[in-house]
Specification:
Blueprint lengths: L1 H20 L4 H12 L4 H26 L3 H9 L5 H26 L6
Helix pairs in contact: 1-2, 1-3, 2-5, 3-5, 4-5
Length: 116
């Protein structure tokens, strides 16, 4: 559990730096590298990646939503059938969570020891 928490924090911090400098797909690549470095098994890697991606993308989307008083999310929500701002923040967080979880899972399976 300690390694999973450490990997989650590493994905969160490393992902924040990576997202500022690189493209969106740097998050799953970074999560794969962290799971490989921390030698996580598949289930803890999925959990750590999911939480790290959810906190990173969901938190950043929430901050941006608050900073512009929800104007941008309301306009984008109209494009997607009238979704509200909080729901769009949640969807953004879930996309980040899925990307990071799959990246971390891939990194853990790269080791070849796939025992859970």
């Amino acid at each position: 559990m300690q390694k999973t928490l450490s990997a989650t924090i590493a994905i969160l911090v490393g992902g924040a730096v990576g997202q500022a400098l690189l493209a969106w797909w740097s998050l799953p690549v970074l999560a794969a590298l962290i799971a490989l470095i921390f030698r996580l098994r598949p289930r803890p890697a999925l959990l750590g990646g999911f939480l790290g991606g959810l906190l990173l993308w969901g938190g950043y989307a929430a901050i941006l939503n608050v900073q512009n008083d929800g104007i941008l999310s309301a306009r984008i929500g109209e494009l997607f059938g009238g979704l509200g701002g909080p729901l769009l923040v949640l969807v953004t967080g879930l996309f980040g969570a899925i990307f990071a979880a799959l990246g971390a899972w891939t990194g853990s399976l790269t080791r070849g020891d796939s025992g859970s």
